[in-house]
Design goal:
This protein has 476 residues and is of the alpha/beta class. It contains 15 helices and 21 strands. The chain folds into two domains: 266 residues, 3-Layer(aba) Sandwich (Aldehyde Dehydrogenase, Chain A, domain 1), CATH 3.40.605; 192 residues, Aldehyde Dehydrogenase, Chain A, domain 2. 41% of the residues lie in helices and 21% in strands. The structure holds nicotinamide-adenine-dinucleotide.
Length: 476
Protein backbone atom coordinates (compact mmCIF):
# COMPACT_ATOMS: atom_id res chain seq x y z
CA UNK A 1 0.00 0.00 0.00
CA UNK A 2 1.35 3.36 -0.98
CA UNK A 3 0.88 6.43 1.24
CA UNK A 4 0.95 9.82 -0.44
CA UNK A 5 1.46 12.09 2.50
CA UNK A 6 2.93 15.33 1.23
CA UNK A 7 1.68 18.44 -0.46
CA UNK A 8 3.84 20.98 -2.31
CA UNK A 9 4.25 24.47 -0.89
CA UNK A 10 6.95 27.02 -1.64
CA UNK A 11 9.11 24.60 -3.59
CA UNK A 12 9.04 21.84 -0.97
CA UNK A 13 7.14 18.65 -0.31
CA UNK A 14 5.69 19.20 3.17
CA UNK A 15 3.39 17.33 5.53
CA UNK A 16 -0.06 18.93 5.47
CA UNK A 17 -1.62 20.40 8.62
CA UNK A 18 -4.82 18.58 7.65
CA UNK A 19 -5.12 15.16 9.28
CA UNK A 20 -7.80 13.52 7.10
CA UNK A 21 -6.82 10.77 4.69
CA UNK A 22 -8.61 9.51 1.64
CA UNK A 23 -8.38 6.07 0.08
CA UNK A 24 -7.48 5.85 -3.59
CA UNK A 25 -9.37 3.02 -5.27
CA UNK A 26 -8.52 1.16 -8.46
CA UNK A 27 -11.69 1.46 -10.59
CA UNK A 28 -10.93 -1.84 -12.36
CA UNK A 29 -10.97 -3.87 -9.13
CA UNK A 30 -12.46 -1.58 -6.47
CA UNK A 31 -9.36 -2.33 -4.37
CA UNK A 32 -7.67 0.37 -2.35
CA UNK A 33 -4.15 0.89 -3.68
CA UNK A 34 -3.05 4.00 -1.80
CA UNK A 35 -4.02 6.57 0.78
CA UNK A 36 -3.82 10.29 0.29
CA UNK A 37 -3.22 12.89 2.99
CA UNK A 38 -5.63 15.77 2.58
CA UNK A 39 -4.70 19.35 3.25
CA UNK A 40 -7.12 21.73 4.96
CA UNK A 41 -7.88 25.48 4.99
CA UNK A 42 -4.66 26.20 6.86
CA UNK A 43 -2.62 24.43 4.19
CA UNK A 44 -4.45 26.37 1.51
CA UNK A 45 -3.63 29.63 3.33
CA UNK A 46 0.07 28.70 3.55
CA UNK A 47 0.14 27.90 -0.16
CA UNK A 48 -1.63 31.15 -1.02
CA UNK A 49 0.87 33.07 1.13
CA UNK A 50 3.76 31.40 -0.73
CA UNK A 51 2.20 32.23 -4.10
CA UNK A 52 1.58 35.81 -2.99
CA UNK A 53 5.19 36.21 -1.85
CA UNK A 54 6.52 34.83 -5.14
CA UNK A 55 4.25 36.99 -7.29
CA UNK A 56 6.14 40.34 -7.36
CA UNK A 57 9.36 38.81 -8.70
CA UNK A 58 7.62 36.35 -11.01
CA UNK A 59 5.32 38.97 -12.49
CA UNK A 60 8.42 40.89 -13.59
CA UNK A 61 10.19 38.00 -15.32
CA UNK A 62 10.89 38.34 -19.03
CA UNK A 63 9.03 36.51 -21.77
CA UNK A 64 12.18 34.50 -22.39
CA UNK A 65 12.43 33.41 -18.75
CA UNK A 66 8.81 32.25 -18.66
CA UNK A 67 9.12 30.54 -22.05
CA UNK A 68 12.12 28.63 -20.68
CA UNK A 69 10.11 27.58 -17.63
CA UNK A 70 7.30 26.28 -19.85
CA UNK A 71 9.85 24.35 -21.89
CA UNK A 72 11.36 22.82 -18.74
CA UNK A 73 7.93 21.82 -17.44
CA UNK A 74 7.14 20.17 -20.78
CA UNK A 75 10.45 18.31 -20.77
CA UNK A 76 10.03 17.17 -17.16
CA UNK A 77 6.61 15.66 -17.94
CA UNK A 78 7.76 13.93 -21.10
CA UNK A 79 10.73 12.47 -19.22
CA UNK A 80 8.29 10.50 -17.05
CA UNK A 81 5.70 9.64 -19.70
CA UNK A 82 5.54 5.93 -18.96
CA UNK A 83 5.09 6.32 -15.20
CA UNK A 84 2.47 9.01 -15.65
CA UNK A 85 0.63 6.82 -18.16
CA UNK A 86 0.66 3.83 -15.78
CA UNK A 87 -0.79 5.99 -13.00
CA UNK A 88 -3.52 7.16 -15.39
CA UNK A 89 -4.42 3.52 -16.10
CA UNK A 90 -4.33 2.45 -12.44
CA UNK A 91 -6.07 5.38 -10.81
CA UNK A 92 -8.44 6.46 -13.52
CA UNK A 93 -9.00 3.34 -15.65
CA UNK A 94 -7.78 4.99 -18.85
CA UNK A 95 -7.38 2.44 -21.64
CA UNK A 96 -3.70 1.79 -22.30
CA UNK A 97 -3.98 2.93 -25.92
CA UNK A 98 -5.03 6.39 -24.70
CA UNK A 99 -2.84 6.82 -21.65
CA UNK A 100 0.44 7.83 -23.34
CA UNK A 101 -1.32 10.34 -25.67
CA UNK A 102 -2.93 11.82 -22.56
CA UNK A 103 0.45 12.53 -21.02
CA UNK A 104 1.72 13.93 -24.31
CA UNK A 105 -1.32 16.19 -24.49
CA UNK A 106 -0.59 17.47 -20.99
CA UNK A 107 2.95 18.36 -22.03
CA UNK A 108 1.78 19.87 -25.31
CA UNK A 109 -0.50 22.27 -23.43
CA UNK A 110 2.63 23.87 -22.01
CA UNK A 111 4.15 24.25 -25.47
CA UNK A 112 0.93 25.83 -26.73
CA UNK A 113 1.15 28.35 -23.89
CA UNK A 114 4.81 28.95 -24.72
CA UNK A 115 3.94 29.72 -28.33
CA UNK A 116 1.12 32.04 -27.26
CA UNK A 117 3.49 33.80 -24.86
CA UNK A 118 6.13 34.33 -27.52
CA UNK A 119 3.60 35.79 -29.95
CA UNK A 120 1.68 37.95 -27.50
CA UNK A 121 2.08 41.73 -27.48
CA UNK A 122 2.06 42.78 -23.85
CA UNK A 123 2.23 46.44 -24.83
CA UNK A 124 0.28 48.17 -27.57
CA UNK A 125 -0.90 51.67 -28.38
CA UNK A 126 -4.41 53.05 -28.84
CA UNK A 127 -4.69 56.74 -29.73
CA UNK A 128 -2.58 58.62 -27.20
CA UNK A 129 -2.56 55.74 -24.72
CA UNK A 130 -0.11 52.97 -24.01
CA UNK A 131 -2.05 49.81 -23.13
CA UNK A 132 -0.21 47.28 -21.00
CA UNK A 133 -1.20 43.68 -20.15
CA UNK A 134 -0.16 42.52 -16.69
CA UNK A 135 -0.65 39.25 -14.80
CA UNK A 136 -3.83 39.28 -12.76
CA UNK A 137 -2.16 37.94 -9.58
CA UNK A 138 -2.32 34.69 -7.62
CA UNK A 139 -4.46 32.12 -9.40
CA UNK A 140 -6.40 29.31 -7.73
CA UNK A 141 -6.63 26.30 -10.04
CA UNK A 142 -9.33 23.73 -9.23
CA UNK A 143 -9.61 20.65 -11.46
CA UNK A 144 -11.79 17.55 -11.88
CA UNK A 145 -10.75 13.89 -12.00
CA UNK A 146 -11.63 13.13 -15.58
CA UNK A 147 -8.49 14.48 -17.27
CA UNK A 148 -6.29 15.49 -14.40
CA UNK A 149 -2.97 15.96 -16.19
CA UNK A 150 -4.21 18.03 -19.10
CA UNK A 151 -6.66 20.08 -17.06
CA UNK A 152 -3.86 21.11 -14.73
CA UNK A 153 -1.31 21.88 -17.44
CA UNK A 154 -3.78 23.87 -19.58
CA UNK A 155 -4.40 26.20 -16.66
CA UNK A 156 -0.84 26.19 -15.37
CA UNK A 157 0.54 26.92 -18.85
CA UNK A 158 -1.65 30.00 -19.22
CA UNK A 159 -0.76 31.18 -15.70
CA UNK A 160 2.99 30.81 -16.20
CA UNK A 161 2.79 32.51 -19.60
CA UNK A 162 0.95 35.44 -18.02
CA UNK A 163 3.24 35.68 -14.97
CA UNK A 164 0.69 34.51 -12.40
CA UNK A 165 1.70 32.33 -9.45
CA UNK A 166 -0.64 29.44 -8.66
CA UNK A 167 -2.15 27.24 -6.01
CA UNK A 168 -3.46 24.05 -7.58
CA UNK A 169 -6.19 22.00 -5.92
CA UNK A 170 -6.54 18.89 -8.04
CA UNK A 171 -9.36 16.42 -7.65
CA UNK A 172 -9.00 14.43 -4.45
CA UNK A 173 -9.55 11.35 -6.62
CA UNK A 174 -6.35 11.94 -8.61
CA UNK A 175 -3.84 11.67 -5.75
CA UNK A 176 -1.33 9.40 -7.47
CA UNK A 177 -1.41 11.29 -10.76
CA UNK A 178 -1.09 14.55 -8.83
CA UNK A 179 1.93 13.30 -6.91
CA UNK A 180 3.81 12.31 -10.08
CA UNK A 181 2.89 15.49 -11.91
CA UNK A 182 4.01 17.59 -8.94
CA UNK A 183 7.32 15.74 -8.91
CA UNK A 184 7.69 16.79 -12.57
CA UNK A 185 6.98 20.42 -11.63
CA UNK A 186 9.59 20.17 -8.88
CA UNK A 187 12.15 18.65 -11.26
CA UNK A 188 11.63 21.52 -13.72
CA UNK A 189 13.47 23.89 -11.38
CA UNK A 190 10.77 26.53 -11.17
CA UNK A 191 11.61 29.07 -8.43
CA UNK A 192 9.90 28.41 -5.10
CA UNK A 193 6.36 29.64 -4.58
CA UNK A 194 5.35 29.95 -8.22
CA UNK A 195 3.67 26.54 -8.29
CA UNK A 196 1.98 25.17 -5.16
CA UNK A 197 -0.13 22.02 -5.05
CA UNK A 198 -2.52 21.24 -2.20
CA UNK A 199 -4.53 18.03 -2.17
CA UNK A 200 -7.80 18.35 -0.32
CA UNK A 201 -11.55 18.48 -0.52
CA UNK A 202 -13.58 21.05 -2.38
CA UNK A 203 -15.33 22.11 0.81
CA UNK A 204 -12.04 22.91 2.56
CA UNK A 205 -9.09 23.67 0.27
CA UNK A 206 -11.32 24.56 -2.70
CA UNK A 207 -13.51 26.83 -0.62
CA UNK A 208 -10.49 28.66 0.83
CA UNK A 209 -9.18 29.33 -2.68
CA UNK A 210 -12.51 30.77 -3.75
CA UNK A 211 -12.92 33.15 -0.80
CA UNK A 212 -9.34 34.17 0.11
CA UNK A 213 -8.76 37.83 -0.72
CA UNK A 214 -5.17 37.17 -1.82
CA UNK A 215 -6.34 35.00 -4.71
CA UNK A 216 -7.11 37.23 -7.69
CA UNK A 217 -8.55 34.62 -10.02
CA UNK A 218 -10.03 31.14 -9.87
CA UNK A 219 -9.66 28.94 -12.91
CA UNK A 220 -12.04 26.01 -12.44
CA UNK A 221 -13.03 22.97 -14.45
CA UNK A 222 -15.76 20.72 -13.12
CA UNK A 223 -19.49 20.36 -12.80
CA UNK A 224 -21.92 23.19 -13.44
CA UNK A 225 -23.28 22.77 -9.89
CA UNK A 226 -19.89 23.43 -8.28
CA UNK A 227 -19.05 26.10 -10.87
CA UNK A 228 -22.09 28.08 -9.74
CA UNK A 229 -21.08 27.67 -6.08
CA UNK A 230 -17.62 28.96 -6.91
CA UNK A 231 -18.99 31.93 -8.81
CA UNK A 232 -21.17 32.89 -5.84
CA UNK A 233 -18.29 32.42 -3.38
CA UNK A 234 -15.95 34.67 -5.36
CA UNK A 235 -18.26 37.69 -5.46
CA UNK A 236 -17.20 39.39 -2.23
CA UNK A 237 -13.51 39.30 -3.10
CA UNK A 238 -14.30 40.33 -6.74
CA UNK A 239 -12.23 37.55 -8.22
CA UNK A 240 -12.03 36.91 -11.87
CA UNK A 241 -13.34 33.44 -12.73
CA UNK A 242 -12.83 31.13 -15.65
CA UNK A 243 -15.32 28.28 -15.44
CA UNK A 244 -15.20 25.22 -17.71
CA UNK A 245 -18.31 23.24 -16.87
CA UNK A 246 -20.56 20.42 -18.00
CA UNK A 247 -22.24 19.69 -21.32
CA UNK A 248 -24.89 17.77 -23.21
CA UNK A 249 -23.54 18.34 -26.67
CA UNK A 250 -25.59 17.66 -29.82
CA UNK A 251 -24.15 15.48 -32.58
CA UNK A 252 -26.25 16.33 -35.65
CA UNK A 253 -26.20 14.08 -38.69
CA UNK A 254 -28.11 15.58 -41.62
CA UNK A 255 -29.79 13.52 -44.31
CA UNK A 256 -27.05 14.30 -46.85
CA UNK A 257 -24.20 13.06 -44.62
CA UNK A 258 -22.32 9.80 -45.08
CA UNK A 259 -24.02 7.79 -42.32
CA UNK A 260 -21.50 4.95 -42.51
CA UNK A 261 -18.85 7.39 -41.28
CA UNK A 262 -20.88 9.81 -39.16
CA UNK A 263 -22.75 7.35 -36.94
CA UNK A 264 -19.68 5.35 -35.80
CA UNK A 265 -17.92 8.68 -35.20
CA UNK A 266 -20.85 9.82 -33.08
CA UNK A 267 -20.66 6.69 -30.94
CA UNK A 268 -16.92 7.17 -30.56
CA UNK A 269 -17.37 10.80 -29.52
CA UNK A 270 -19.96 9.89 -26.90
CA UNK A 271 -17.83 7.09 -25.47
CA UNK A 272 -14.53 8.97 -25.45
CA UNK A 273 -12.68 8.93 -22.14
CA UNK A 274 -14.83 5.95 -21.03
CA UNK A 275 -17.86 8.19 -21.58
CA UNK A 276 -16.52 10.77 -19.14
CA UNK A 277 -15.74 13.70 -21.41
CA UNK A 278 -17.35 17.09 -20.86
CA UNK A 279 -17.52 17.78 -24.58
CA UNK A 280 -18.81 14.34 -25.67
CA UNK A 281 -21.61 14.37 -28.23
CA UNK A 282 -24.16 12.65 -26.03
CA UNK A 283 -27.31 13.64 -27.97
CA UNK A 284 -27.29 12.15 -31.45
CA UNK A 285 -29.81 14.04 -33.63
CA UNK A 286 -30.81 12.24 -36.85
CA UNK A 287 -33.55 12.53 -39.50
CA UNK A 288 -36.65 10.63 -38.38
CA UNK A 289 -36.90 8.54 -41.54
CA UNK A 290 -33.31 7.25 -41.16
CA UNK A 291 -33.72 6.01 -37.56
CA UNK A 292 -33.64 2.26 -38.28
CA UNK A 293 -30.40 2.60 -40.25
CA UNK A 294 -28.89 4.72 -37.47
CA UNK A 295 -29.80 2.14 -34.83
CA UNK A 296 -28.12 -0.62 -36.82
CA UNK A 297 -24.97 1.38 -37.41
CA UNK A 298 -24.77 2.46 -33.76
CA UNK A 299 -25.29 -1.10 -32.50
CA UNK A 300 -22.59 -2.44 -34.85
CA UNK A 301 -20.14 0.23 -33.69
CA UNK A 302 -20.78 -0.50 -30.02
CA UNK A 303 -20.37 -4.22 -30.58
CA UNK A 304 -17.02 -3.63 -32.27
CA UNK A 305 -15.64 -1.82 -29.21
CA UNK A 306 -13.92 -3.77 -26.50
CA UNK A 307 -14.87 -3.05 -22.90
CA UNK A 308 -12.19 -4.48 -20.71
CA UNK A 309 -9.28 -4.08 -18.37
CA UNK A 310 -7.56 -0.78 -19.14
CA UNK A 311 -4.20 -2.54 -18.91
CA UNK A 312 -4.96 -4.53 -22.08
CA UNK A 313 -3.65 -3.00 -25.29
CA UNK A 314 -6.84 -3.47 -27.34
CA UNK A 315 -9.34 -2.15 -24.77
CA UNK A 316 -11.42 0.78 -26.02
CA UNK A 317 -13.50 1.36 -22.91
CA UNK A 318 -12.27 0.97 -19.36
CA UNK A 319 -14.20 1.36 -16.12
CA UNK A 320 -15.98 4.41 -14.75
CA UNK A 321 -13.77 6.30 -12.31
CA UNK A 322 -15.56 5.47 -9.05
CA UNK A 323 -18.36 3.37 -7.60
CA UNK A 324 -20.33 6.58 -7.00
CA UNK A 325 -20.09 7.54 -10.67
CA UNK A 326 -20.84 3.94 -11.67
CA UNK A 327 -24.04 4.07 -9.62
CA UNK A 328 -24.96 7.38 -11.20
CA UNK A 329 -24.61 5.92 -14.70
CA UNK A 330 -26.70 2.88 -13.67
CA UNK A 331 -29.33 5.26 -12.31
CA UNK A 332 -29.56 7.10 -15.63
CA UNK A 333 -29.81 3.86 -17.62
CA UNK A 334 -32.68 2.72 -15.40
CA UNK A 335 -34.41 6.10 -15.66
CA UNK A 336 -34.09 5.90 -19.46
CA UNK A 337 -35.85 2.54 -19.42
CA UNK A 338 -38.54 3.73 -16.98
CA UNK A 339 -39.26 6.84 -19.04
CA UNK A 340 -39.82 4.72 -22.14
CA UNK A 341 -36.68 5.16 -24.23
CA UNK A 342 -35.89 2.22 -26.53
CA UNK A 343 -32.79 0.26 -25.58
CA UNK A 344 -30.74 -0.38 -28.74
CA UNK A 345 -27.72 -1.97 -27.09
CA UNK A 346 -26.22 -2.20 -23.59
CA UNK A 347 -28.37 -1.69 -20.52
CA UNK A 348 -28.01 -1.85 -16.76
CA UNK A 349 -25.41 -3.93 -14.90
CA UNK A 350 -21.86 -5.02 -15.60
CA UNK A 351 -20.69 -6.52 -18.88
CA UNK A 352 -20.24 -10.28 -18.48
CA UNK A 353 -16.92 -11.22 -16.90
CA UNK A 354 -16.23 -7.68 -15.63
CA UNK A 355 -18.24 -7.75 -12.42
CA UNK A 356 -15.31 -6.84 -10.18
CA UNK A 357 -14.87 -3.18 -11.16
CA UNK A 358 -16.85 -0.11 -12.24
CA UNK A 359 -17.38 -1.41 -15.77
CA UNK A 360 -20.63 -0.46 -17.48
CA UNK A 361 -22.20 -1.71 -20.66
CA UNK A 362 -21.84 0.93 -23.37
CA UNK A 363 -25.45 1.83 -23.96
CA UNK A 364 -27.47 3.38 -26.77
CA UNK A 365 -31.06 4.53 -26.43
CA UNK A 366 -33.30 5.44 -29.35
CA UNK A 367 -36.63 7.27 -29.39
CA UNK A 368 -35.37 9.59 -26.70
CA UNK A 369 -37.52 12.69 -26.33
CA UNK A 370 -36.19 16.09 -25.34
CA UNK A 371 -38.21 16.06 -22.12
CA UNK A 372 -36.71 12.76 -20.94
CA UNK A 373 -34.09 12.90 -18.22
CA UNK A 374 -31.47 11.14 -20.36
CA UNK A 375 -32.15 13.63 -23.16
CA UNK A 376 -31.42 16.60 -20.90
CA UNK A 377 -28.95 15.79 -18.13
CA UNK A 378 -25.23 15.16 -18.25
CA UNK A 379 -24.75 11.43 -17.48
CA UNK A 380 -20.94 11.25 -17.59
CA UNK A 381 -20.81 7.64 -18.75
CA UNK A 382 -20.99 5.80 -22.08
CA UNK A 383 -24.69 6.35 -22.69
CA UNK A 384 -25.83 7.74 -26.05
CA UNK A 385 -29.32 9.15 -26.61
CA UNK A 386 -30.69 9.17 -30.17
CA UNK A 387 -33.33 11.82 -30.91
CA UNK A 388 -34.99 12.48 -34.27
CA UNK A 389 -35.89 15.60 -36.23
CA UNK A 390 -38.08 16.19 -39.27
CA UNK A 391 -36.49 19.37 -40.64
CA UNK A 392 -33.12 21.10 -40.43
CA UNK A 393 -34.79 23.96 -38.63
CA UNK A 394 -36.03 21.57 -35.98
CA UNK A 395 -32.54 20.02 -35.67
CA UNK A 396 -31.02 23.41 -34.85
CA UNK A 397 -33.78 24.18 -32.35
CA UNK A 398 -33.20 20.85 -30.65
CA UNK A 399 -29.44 21.36 -30.63
CA UNK A 400 -29.91 24.66 -28.81
CA UNK A 401 -32.69 23.44 -26.54
CA UNK A 402 -30.40 22.82 -23.58
CA UNK A 403 -28.98 24.82 -20.69
CA UNK A 404 -25.53 23.73 -21.82
CA UNK A 405 -23.42 25.03 -24.69
CA UNK A 406 -20.00 23.42 -24.67
CA UNK A 407 -19.66 21.58 -27.99
CA UNK A 408 -21.68 20.69 -31.09
CA UNK A 409 -21.02 18.41 -34.04
CA UNK A 410 -22.47 18.88 -37.53
CA UNK A 411 -22.29 16.32 -40.33
CA UNK A 412 -23.39 17.14 -43.86
CA UNK A 413 -22.05 16.75 -47.39
CA UNK A 414 -23.04 20.38 -47.98
CA UNK A 415 -20.19 22.30 -46.38
CA UNK A 416 -21.75 25.66 -47.09
CA UNK A 417 -24.87 24.65 -45.21
CA UNK A 418 -22.84 23.13 -42.36
CA UNK A 419 -20.90 26.38 -41.96
CA UNK A 420 -24.06 28.45 -42.03
CA UNK A 421 -25.73 26.25 -39.41
CA UNK A 422 -22.60 26.39 -37.25
CA UNK A 423 -23.22 30.12 -36.82
CA UNK A 424 -26.66 29.34 -35.38
CA UNK A 425 -25.51 26.85 -32.74
CA UNK A 426 -25.02 28.17 -29.23
CA UNK A 427 -21.82 26.35 -28.27
CA UNK A 428 -18.19 27.23 -27.66
CA UNK A 429 -16.87 24.68 -30.18
CA UNK A 430 -18.51 23.38 -33.35
CA UNK A 431 -16.84 20.46 -35.13
CA UNK A 432 -17.87 19.80 -38.72
CA UNK A 433 -17.68 16.42 -40.49
CA UNK A 434 -15.53 14.63 -37.94
CA UNK A 435 -12.91 17.37 -37.54
CA UNK A 436 -10.90 17.27 -34.33
CA UNK A 437 -10.21 20.06 -31.85
CA UNK A 438 -7.62 22.75 -32.55
CA UNK A 439 -5.74 22.92 -29.28
CA UNK A 440 -4.36 26.43 -29.93
CA UNK A 441 -7.87 27.81 -30.43
CA UNK A 442 -10.12 28.95 -27.58
CA UNK A 443 -12.09 26.33 -25.68
CA UNK A 444 -15.02 27.01 -23.38
CA UNK A 445 -18.75 27.10 -23.05
CA UNK A 446 -21.83 29.17 -23.76
CA UNK A 447 -24.66 29.36 -21.21
CA UNK A 448 -24.31 26.94 -18.25
CA UNK A 449 -21.20 25.36 -19.76
CA UNK A 450 -19.01 28.14 -18.53
CA UNK A 451 -17.40 31.54 -18.54
CA UNK A 452 -14.14 32.50 -20.22
CA UNK A 453 -11.89 30.61 -22.60
CA UNK A 454 -8.82 28.43 -22.23
CA UNK A 455 -5.89 27.46 -24.47
CA UNK A 456 -3.56 29.46 -26.62
CA UNK A 457 -3.72 33.22 -26.74
CA UNK A 458 -7.29 33.31 -25.40
CA UNK A 459 -6.28 31.33 -22.32
CA UNK A 460 -3.36 33.68 -21.75
CA UNK A 461 -5.58 36.76 -22.10
CA UNK A 462 -7.94 35.41 -19.44
CA UNK A 463 -5.04 35.61 -16.94
CA UNK A 464 -4.16 39.23 -17.70
CA UNK A 465 -5.29 42.62 -16.44
CA UNK A 466 -5.27 45.59 -18.78
CA UNK A 467 -3.79 48.95 -17.83
CA UNK A 468 -4.14 52.12 -19.90
CA UNK A 469 -1.38 54.71 -19.47
CA UNK A 470 -1.70 58.14 -20.98
CA UNK A 471 1.04 60.74 -20.80
CA UNK A 472 3.64 58.03 -21.12
CA UNK A 473 5.36 60.21 -23.73
CA UNK A 474 4.68 63.59 -22.10
CA UNK A 475 7.73 65.32 -20.61
CA UNK A 476 6.97 67.46 -17.52
P1 LIG B 1 -16.82 18.48 -9.50
O1 LIG B 1 -17.47 19.76 -9.86
O2 LIG B 1 -17.50 17.59 -8.54
O3 LIG B 1 -15.37 18.75 -8.87
C1 LIG B 1 -14.39 19.49 -9.56
C2 LIG B 1 -13.38 20.04 -8.56
O4 LIG B 1 -14.03 21.00 -7.72
C3 LIG B 1 -12.78 19.00 -7.61
O5 LIG B 1 -11.42 19.29 -7.43
C4 LIG B 1 -13.56 19.22 -6.33
O6 LIG B 1 -12.85 18.84 -5.17
C5 LIG B 1 -13.75 20.73 -6.36
N1 LIG B 1 -14.85 21.25 -5.55
C6 LIG B 1 -15.99 20.62 -5.18
N2 LIG B 1 -16.75 21.44 -4.43
C7 LIG B 1 -16.10 22.62 -4.34
C8 LIG B 1 -16.38 23.87 -3.71
N3 LIG B 1 -17.51 24.07 -3.02
N4 LIG B 1 -15.49 24.86 -3.82
C9 LIG B 1 -14.35 24.71 -4.53
N5 LIG B 1 -14.03 23.54 -5.14
C10 LIG B 1 -14.89 22.51 -5.05
O7 LIG B 1 -16.52 17.75 -10.88
P2 LIG B 1 -15.93 16.30 -11.13
O8 LIG B 1 -16.97 15.30 -10.75
O9 LIG B 1 -14.57 16.19 -10.52
O10 LIG B 1 -15.74 16.32 -12.74
C11 LIG B 1 -16.76 16.05 -13.64
C12 LIG B 1 -17.40 17.33 -14.14
O11 LIG B 1 -16.42 18.18 -14.74
C13 LIG B 1 -18.43 17.08 -15.24
O12 LIG B 1 -19.57 17.87 -15.01
C14 LIG B 1 -17.72 17.55 -16.52
O13 LIG B 1 -18.58 17.95 -17.55
C15 LIG B 1 -16.89 18.66 -16.00
N6 LIG B 1 -15.76 18.91 -16.92
C16 LIG B 1 -15.79 20.02 -17.72
C17 LIG B 1 -14.75 20.26 -18.61
C18 LIG B 1 -14.73 21.49 -19.49
O14 LIG B 1 -13.68 21.80 -20.03
N7 LIG B 1 -15.82 22.19 -19.68
C19 LIG B 1 -13.69 19.36 -18.69
C20 LIG B 1 -13.69 18.26 -17.87
C21 LIG B 1 -14.73 18.04 -16.98
Amino acid sequence: MRHIDKIYINGEFVTPRGTERQELVNPSTREVFATLALGNEEDAKLAIAAAKAAFPAFSRTTVQERADMLQRLNDAILARTDELAEANILEYGAPRMLSVPRVQLAAMNLMISKEALEEFEFVHYIGKAKVVSEPVGVMGIITPWNASYSQITAKLGAAIAAGCTVVIKPSEMSGLQTQLLTECFDAAGIPAGIINVVNGLGATVGAELTRNKDVAMVNFTGSTRVGKEIRRATVDSMKRVTLELGGKSPYIVFDDADFSKAIPAAVKSCFSNNGQACVAGTRLLVPEHRLEEVKQLARAMVESMKVGLPTEADTNLGPIVSEKQYNQVQHYINVGLQEGAELVVGGAGHPAGLEQGNFVKPTVFANVREDMTIGKEEIFGPVLSILTFKTEEEAIEMANNTDYGLGAYINSSNLEKANELATRIQAGSVLINGAGFEMKAPFGGYKHSGIGREYGVHGLKDCLETKTITGYDLPM
